[in-house]
Amino acid sequence: MNEDIKTCIYSENTNADYGSALRTSLVRHPAIHILTEVHDHQGLIDCLGRLPVTLLVLDLDPKPASVLAIMEDVCARFPSLAIIALSDNAEPDLILSAMRAGCRQFITKPVDLDDLTRALKPLTRAASGQAKTERLICVLGSSGGCGVTTICANLAIELAQLAAEPCALVDLQLEFGSVATYFDLHPTHTIADLTNTPNEIDAQITEQAMTVLPSKVAVLARPQRIEQVAHVDPERIAQILKILTRGHDAVVVDTPRRFDRIGITALEMANSVLLVLQLSVPSIRNAQRLYKGLVQYGMPPEKIHPVVNRFTRNSPISPQDVAQHLNTGVFAVIPNDYQTVQAALDFGRPLLSDSPDSPVRKAIAKIAGRIYRGDFDSTKLKSERKAGLLSRWLGSGAKR
Ligand SMILES: Nc1ncnc2c1ncn2[C@@H]1O[C@H](COP(=O)(O)OP(=O)(O)O)[C@@H](O)[C@H]1O
Ligand SMILES: [Mg+2]
Predict the structure, then answer these.
(1) Number of domains present in the structure of the chain
(2) Are residues 188 and 299 in the same domain?
(3) Does residue 146 have its Cβ closer than 6 Å to ligand 1?
(4) 348-400 per-position pLDDT tens digit
(5) Do 140 and 56 share a structural domain?
(6) Which residues in the chain come in under a pLDDT of 50?
(7) Residue 87 and residue 14: Cα distance in Å, rounded?
(8) What is the pTM of this model?
(9) Whose CA is nearest to atom 5 of ligand 1?
(10) Which domain holds residue 318?
(11) Does the C-beta of 31 come closer than 6 Å to ligand 1?
(12) How confident is the model over 223-233, as pLDDT tens digits?
């Protein structure tokens, strides 16, 4: 663990007692080493250019608007700098503005040691070099439109709730991914900031390219411009995922269905793959191809967890048919509720805030709970009806 986070404090309040109280509240954390304290914009820029600062603690009080403008300037000049904003005011609007201006952590004053420890975790963990999580979850669709982005977005929210810290959500559908759209987000930074640069990346630069939403989802959005996709290097993707697993309790990846080097890189690194399908013959056939392809590629079958989305009781195909066809248990079933899911999507509001009691949200929350506990037992799914119909429809293709 890094025992020496070189810190600069920026505060427009020059009162000596105030400064002393602020410093004391920060140095209670054993990793914080305060290099300097500055009170004006130019002084801050000079000091960041001169000193090896890794963390900037920005006091937003008493005039947040002017400090936020300074923060934007600092982020543009020093993109790898980690920033923690402090304020007396915990209004969501202020927190959001601070996040948009570039800080990744916000603490309400007086600074609580637990809050500070949580905020510093990505920095201390990055230095330790160890993966924090075994929850790198690739969500893979058996066909277009089967619900991957919906599941990714809502799963990330639920996992963030469980961990009480940001869950990383990476949109690896580099051409047409819609993770940002799902949250009605217009990100200033994207994965292209990390992939289309010859410069080395680290935890701070990676976090800087992400947008942390009020729902505690840290989104790494797909590139803004389609021509940027051609330059994305799989090795860089591996590096990014590695960094994210070190800094986050869970990492969810909206995974491309193509077996190209980028998709394979993510799948190889995944601890679990949620293979999403619907109860239709083409979707199940594709799921079987993908399942077999992954296993042949060397993925242990126990890492692949089929998830049936848009389940309706009157479907002639049952999850048990799927289990029989894939020759593996179905991990979870998410009901069909187009109105609820589409309304959440149209308004850019996740199910947890829009329809917390909806069966779809509850099903995804249950998946999150099981992932969180490491409970991937598929035998728990209750039998709905006997299998058999699908084999008839799929003919010889149904036999393995
Ligand atoms: N459980 C569900 N019930 C009803 N509609 C759903 C469900 N899951 C997804 N959808 C709808 O299916 C469509 C495709 O979902 P999306 O998550 O974008 O799929 P993908 O990312 O696989 O292309 C969207 O219109 C979405 O609202
Ligand atoms: Mg999608």
Answers:
(1) 2
(2) yes
(3) yes
(4) 788 988 899 999 999 999 999 999 888 888 876 644 444 455 555 554 443 43
(5) no
(6) 1-2, 382-387, 395-400
(7) 16
(8) 0.70
(9) 338
(10) 136-398
(11) no
(12) 999 999 998 98
